[in-house]
Amino acid sequence: MPKPSTRIATLTGDGDDGWAIFYRARALKAEGREILELTIGEHDVGTAPDILYEMHRAAMAGHTGYASVHGIPPLRQAVADRLSAQHGHAYGPANVLIVPGAQAGLFAAHHAACDEGDVALMIDPHYTTYPGTIRAVGARPLAVPARSEDGFQPDLAALAAAAPGARSLLINSPNNPTGAVYSRDSLEGIARIAEAHDLWVISDEVYDSQVWVGRHIPFASLPGMAARTLTVGSLSKSHAMTGSRLGWVAGPEAVMARLVTLATHTTYGVPGYIQEAGLYALRQGAAAEAAIAAPFLRRRQMVLDRLAAQNRVRTIPPGGAMYVMLDIRATGLSGIDFAGRLLEETGVAVMPGESFGQAAAGHLRVALTLPDARFEVAIDRLLDFAARI
């Protein structure tokens, strides 16, 4: 067999994609064991029936052929209107490219920002796919740690030190895995660094509808930043449409035109009937997004209430997103060892912090994604296990 390319063989760097616990949990479920999964950001409810009905209607109406690679004009306009309202900066359809999910958007944005061999900055902890996405476009990921002791806010001094010679910076607020919502001071500091070092900022804002404390500040809304920001979003989290694979990249018109060329040579667009359903979903307004987010806020409080009654596990209360990051360093176990034993001994699956970078070592990411009663059982088992060890 011919040798695969170096790029494809080294996407995960050391060969670990960070999902070992998730794979093990699914294997145990396949064997018939009851597993309480708090691993991935998958809602415990499916896509709303009215959105699915619109998808069916659009398919039956004939929207099953090739759709515009850019995205259908009404959907691009709807995304532009949403972003214009959030950012205080006027977007039009030419500023928006519809892509098959935010992951495709991150891939496209890094293609737009980076050449072969360029340094692409990201903040650690980071979502598991970030380093591989950067490697996939031929760039070199460089992680800049954010510390638990600082609420996982970006370390501006460390970012400034890493910025010379870099081409891009990937940020994510509200943050996966930590739940941190970046403060205005943090974002303004990043803006100064981006301007000083002529960086593209790729802003992953897929959790913008899940903010529990303070408010979400879109990075492109900061003075002068719209011209150097590529904003990535999707309907996966805001509308429980994870399997529909529908997202966007938004940015300067000239760059979006280039990204259409990239999409023509890669994804060739998103099915029209899915786009029609996404348009319908966006038109339901903020109330629909709030209804999807509400269970995660409720379960966040359930975790905080239980943590207050013990002293083995700590957390920084998340400001947003559908996760809680737990600090289990007091147990003496790594996140990997704790998560592995927790799964085998109690049937509760959580993600070790080490899956998201070394800055999260000794932590666990808990997804708030089981119905309340089962979620309570899972959290109680986790805390009982921490107490025993």
From TrEMBL:
Q: Name the cofactor(s).
A: pyridoxal 5'-phosphate
Per the UniProt entry, what is one GO biological process? amino acid metabolic process
GO molecular function, a single term: L-aspartate:2-oxoglutarate aminotransferase activity
Q: What class of enzyme is it?
A: transferase
Which EC number applies? 2.6.1.-
Query: Its catalytic activity?
Result: L-aspartate + 2-oxoglutarate = oxaloacetate + L-glutamate
> Which superkingdom, per the lineage?
Bacteria
Which keywords appear in this protein's UniProt record, sorted alphabetically? Aminotransferase, Pyridoxal phosphate, Pyruvate, Transferase
Q: Which SUPFAM superfamilies match?
A: PLP-dependent transferases
Pfam assignment, any one: Aminotran_1_2
Cite the Aminotransferase class I/classII large domain residue spans from the record: 34-382
Q: Sorted alphabetically, which CDD domains does this protein's record hold?
A: AAT_like
State the family it belongs to: Belongs to the class-I pyridoxal-phosphate-dependent aminotransferase family.
> What is the protein name given in its UniProt record?
Aminotransferase
